[in-house]
Write a structure and sequence with these properties.
Elements: E1 2-6, H1 10-22, E2 27-31, H2 38-43, E3 48-49, H3 52-59, E4 63-66, H4 70-82, E5 87-89, H5 97-109, E6 114-116, H6 124-134, E7 141-149, H7 163-179, E8 183-190, E9 194-200, E10 205-211, E11 224-229, E12 233-237, E13 240-245, E14 248-252, H8 263-272, H9 281-300, E15 304-305, E16 339-345, E17 353-361, E18 366-371, E19 375-383, E20 385-390, E21 393-398, E22 402-405, E23 410-414, E24 421-429
Parallel strand pairs: 1-2, 1-4, 2-3, 4-5, 5-6, 7-10
Antiparallel strand pairs: 7-11, 8-9, 8-15, 9-10, 11-12, 12-13, 13-14, 16-17, 17-24, 18-23, 19-22, 19-24, 20-21, 20-23
Keywords: Oxidoreductase
InterPro entries: Cupin_2 (IPR013096), Gfo/Idh/MocA-like_OxRdtase_N (IPR000683), Gfo/Idh/MocA_Oxidoreductases (IPR051450), GFO_IDH_MocA-like_dom (IPR055170), NAD(P)-bd_dom_sf (IPR036291), RmlC-like_jellyroll (IPR014710), RmlC_Cupin_sf (IPR011051)
Protein name: Oxidoreductase YteT
Length: about 425
């Protein structure tokens, strides 16, 4: 594996040392417009270029690491994408939300792997907190409250709200990562410190308070968090996790059971396994969107809807009358041949719906008596009449009737009329 590292400034020099010390199987080359960097890099035996295109042409890297200032991200990535190079980039994606969307859309359209180096979620104590949440240790999450206090105002920023893309974007990622939910609305104020209220999916309310000129006790970079649930509370305080449940508090400060490879290791592994990386640019765009909408909320002094950033995709419409019939067949050992159209399959849904189909039973035919184990099946009678049998009980059904078959129930349907019986049928897996 050969990697081209673009930019060896502050963050870039850290990545340079990290890759050389932690990724011995990666052959490295460097590109930076600052000629003064050459002697140090070449002194380490690493090829150095001031021209990005020359570096790509000469080195033919497998991946590109973009660790330039955010204003340069788009130009660098456009060149890399032109060579179909997978890109691993420092956050934020771009200098503004519009450019970020354009880059993510281009990478997706051209099938180019593109990942952002989000590292806060990779801290062992954060992974432990996530594990406890996923295990249901506090039940359903109700509220998430985070705070960040540091004295970092010496960091160069063109605008005070640059803190959103440079710093708070990490904490937006933590809110989404820990809850597994998206933010639907955001309201923010910023005077002496930043206050953000987030209305999330599943009726979760999240808040975040941030000061970059605090003179009191400093939090670590991930911040401190309190997550209240229906059955308990989880807290992350100074990188230690506390679980309070049933009046007792358990402290977690040993994270040796947590496996969390670094962001670049995850990127390389995702390429090897031909899958989307954990903090792909497609997913990370939702974090930068929150930074963008927080800016808008502060500018407008009102709550802003963020849901369009979730990436809904195009509307999906399928017509059961226009869909093609499959080959007619005997259904569950029933009478005669029935006709069906598969409208949606399991792969079409994000929930446990297994399928949705249209069935047509000519007079005298039937869907044989059968059961489905761990799922529920619903029959919606559109036209015609028939006899529905559920657990041995028979009932005449007609257009407009909806029949529910619960897990392990047995059921069958016979057309006893003189015209076709038409129905929509869908199946849903039982909740685990």
């Amino acid at each position: 594996m050969k990697a081209l590292l673009v930019g060896v400034g502050g963050f870039g020099s850290s990545w340079y040392r990290r890759i050389r010390s932690q990724h011995g199987d990666v052959t490295l080359a460097v590109a930076d417009s600052d000629e003064s960097k050459r002697s140090q890099i070449e002194g380490d035996g690493i090829p150095f270029y001031t021209s990005l295109t020359e570096a790509i042409e000469q080195e033919r890297p497998d991946v590109l690491l973009n660790v330039t200032p955010r204003q340069a991200h788009k130009a660098i990535n456009d060149i890399a994408f032109g060579y179909k190079l997978p890109v691993f980039s420092e956050k934020p994606i771009a200098a503004n939300y519009e450019d970020a969307k354009a880059m993510v859309e281009r990478a997706a359209a051209e099938g180019i792997p593109y990942m952002i180096a989000e590292n806060y979620r990779r801290f062992p104590f954060v992974r432990k907190l996530k594990r406890l949440l996923d295990e249901g240790s506090i039940g359903a999450v109700l509220t998430v409250d985070g705070e960040f206090y540091r004295d970092t105002d010496n960091r160069p920023m063109q605008d005070k709200l640059d803190v959103l893309e440079e710093l708070v974007v990490h904490h937006f990622d933590l809110v989404r990562y820990l809850t597994g939910r998206e933010v639907g609305k955001v309201f923010a104020t910023y005077r002496h410190q930043l206050h953000i209220v987030m209305d999330m999916q599943a009726a979760i309310t999240a808040t975040f308070t941030c000061s970059t000129r605090s003179k009191g006790k400093q939090t670590d970079w991930a911040g401190n968090w309190r997550i209240e649930g229906t059955e308990g509370c989880l807290e992350l305080i100074d990188n230690v996790v506390y679980l309070t449940k049933g009046g007792e508090t358990t402290r977690f400060d040993d994270f040796s059971d947590i496996v969390s490879p670094g962001a670049f290791a995850e990127f390389l592994q995702s390429l090897e396994e031909n899958r989307e990386a954990e903090t792909s640019a497609r997913d990370y765009l939702k974090n930068q969107a929150l930074a963008h909408y927080t800016r808008e909320s502060i500018r407008q002094s009102q709550m802003v809807d963020t849901s369009s950033s979730w990436g809904y995709g195009p509307m999906i419409v399928r017509n059961y009358l226009e869909a093609e019939f499959g080959e007619p067949g005997v259904s569950h050992h029933g009478k005669g041949l029935t006709y069906g159209k598969r409208l949606f399959s399991n792969e079409d849904f994000d929930t446990p719906i297994q399928f949705m189909g249209y069935s047509e039973l000519p007079p005298g035919t039937s869907i044989g008596y059968h059961g489905h184990r761990e799922d529920e099946e619903v029959y919606i009678i559109l036209e015609g009449t028939g006899v529905m049998t559920v657990n041995g009980e028979e009932r005449q059904v007609k257009a407009g009737d909806i029949v529910l078959n619960k897990p392990w129930w047995k059921h069958g349907l016979e057309n006893n009329g003189d015209r076709p019986l038409r129905a929509i049928i869908f199946e849903v897996m039982k909740k685990s």
